Amino acid sequence: MAGIGFRLRALLSEDTVASTMKAYLIGAVVSSGPWLITFIVLAALNFLQLGHIGFNNMILFQGILLYIFAFTLIIVGIFQMPVTRYVADLIYKQDLERIVPVFVGAVLTIGSVLLLVSGVAVFRFTGWDFPLQVVSVGTFVMVGLIWVAMIFMSATKDFMAILRAFIVGGIVGIVGGWGLGNLYFVPGYLMGFLLGQSVIFTMLCFRIFEEFPVDGDFDFSFLSYIVKLPYLMLAGWLYQLSIWVDKFVFWFSKEGKVVSHFIYASPIYDYPFFLAYVTIIPALAIFLVRTETHFYDHYRAFYACLSQKRSYRSLEAEKTALIASVTRSIFHLIRRQGFITILVILLAPHLVGILKLDWVQLGVLRIVTLALFLQVLFQVQLTLLMYFEWHRFAAFLTALFVVVNGVGTWLSLKAGLAYYGYGYFVAAFLVLMIGFPVLFSRLHRLDEITLMGTDG
């Protein structure tokens, strides 16, 4: 995403309120597009009388979408980092004519896995009517393919194409969901959402095919990177799992409720958590527009110094500048997002009334808002580790996050309502406390680590 970030950063250089707002708004859509559009579509459909289908059907519709996002992220997470690295290597080697065949290969491979998993789950383990089964599988596959397309869209650096796709797709999802939902209830709402997602995917595909020359039909060679870089694959997959493991624990606990067959939910935890997720969209935009791009400038300068075989003093100077850039960027993010997080925590009692939450969810909303702030910092940490190819340590941290989040969430359920959400918070806090000291220690030894060819 650094390439898109550079183009957005150019808007900031105009130094006007309008250009700054435009840069961060686009950054929010690019970094959180699927989440943001889904949130807007659900809110709009709710406003347009989604409730007329009945409370149970409304919960089923929301539960299906929640499962779709959870399991597409986890499944695509297996492939995400290897595909991203493979595409980055193609761009570095200027082998651009292979990008489209790799995209087609990734769509065929990952799409097949998504279709198989969702098909077995839905047709084998639910008793839903056939139309709902079909549209659920179709939505599952389409959302997963959008995650895949976003990997390749970052290579186009065309943030306006991404923005247009999500705006048009969002409008189609709202209009289609409202129109079809009035006729066919849950299958209709889901079909409208699927139409919107299909428009997004189609527009992204057109832009990818338009950007890169085509040489061949499809290319599956990206799969070799799963074997070649196993810790990279593990880090990407475990990171996605770490985000969802606490929800799984809640869904299948005493606080979980059966929505339909294997669809579970835990309203006391789910609603405040996903409302809190909206609060970190600014941080994700800041990371895209400022943090990663500033770091990347110095990252390239350091390795250019190495490749040009400049003096050791020059190398030390570039290393010092890189460390300073990382430090400044992290503190910039902490200040900006920290203000938003503290504001939400202080205003939480008022938000409970406005958002029609139960008062018992107030404590959950506060702690998960803080936990998600820490998660953003963990994402920054992981991104930096990936840049320097410290995959093993990244995989260790994400595995630790999964275990501590899962076990901590289970213990919080045992401890009672006052502790709900603390499993996620403790897990995020722990990986930061372990990860950042090691990261900065390695950065201070970056010249030694690079020249000796070690993993730190």
Question: Topology, pairings included?
Answer:
Blueprint (H helix, E strand, L loop, with lengths): L1 H11 L4 H31 L7 H38 L6 H27 L4 H27 L2 H53 L12 H5 L1 H22 L5 E4 L2 E3 L1 H12 L2 H27 L4 H43 L7 H26 L3 H25 L6 H23 L1 H7 L4
Antiparallel strand pairs: 1-2
Helix pairs in contact: 1-2, 1-10, 2-6, 2-10, 3-4, 3-5, 3-6, 3-8, 4-5, 5-6, 8-13, 9-12, 10-11, 11-12, 12-14, 13-14
Give structural notes.
There is one protein chain. The chain has 456 residues and is an all-alpha fold. The chain has two domains: 227 residues, no CATH class; 181 residues, no CATH class. 83% of the residues lie in helices and 2% in strands. It contains 15 helices and two strands. Strand 1 and strand 2 form a beta hairpin. The chain is globular, with a radius of gyration of 22 Å. It starts with a helix and ends with a helix. The N terminus is likely disordered.
Which terms summarize this structure?
single chain; mainly alpha; 2 domains; two-stranded antiparallel ribbon; 2% strand; disordered N terminus
Topology, number of strands: 2
* Uncertain stretches of 5 or more adjacent residues: 1-6
Domain module tally: 2
- Oligomer state of the chains in this structure: single chain
Radius of gyration from the alpha-carbon trace, in angstroms: 22 Å
Shape: globular
Order of helices and strands: HHHHHHHHEEHHHHHHH
Q: Helicity range of the residues?
A: over 70%
Largest sheet: 2 strands, antiparallel
Q: Average pLDDT, to the nearest integer?
A: 85
Query: What is the terminal-to-terminal distance?
Result: 25 Å
The DSSP helix count reads 15
Structural class: mainly alpha
Kindly report the spatial arrangement of strands forming the biggest sheet: 1-2
Please state roughly what percent of the residues sit in beta strands, choosing from under 5%, 5-15%, 15-25%, 25-35%, 35-45% or over 45%: under 5%
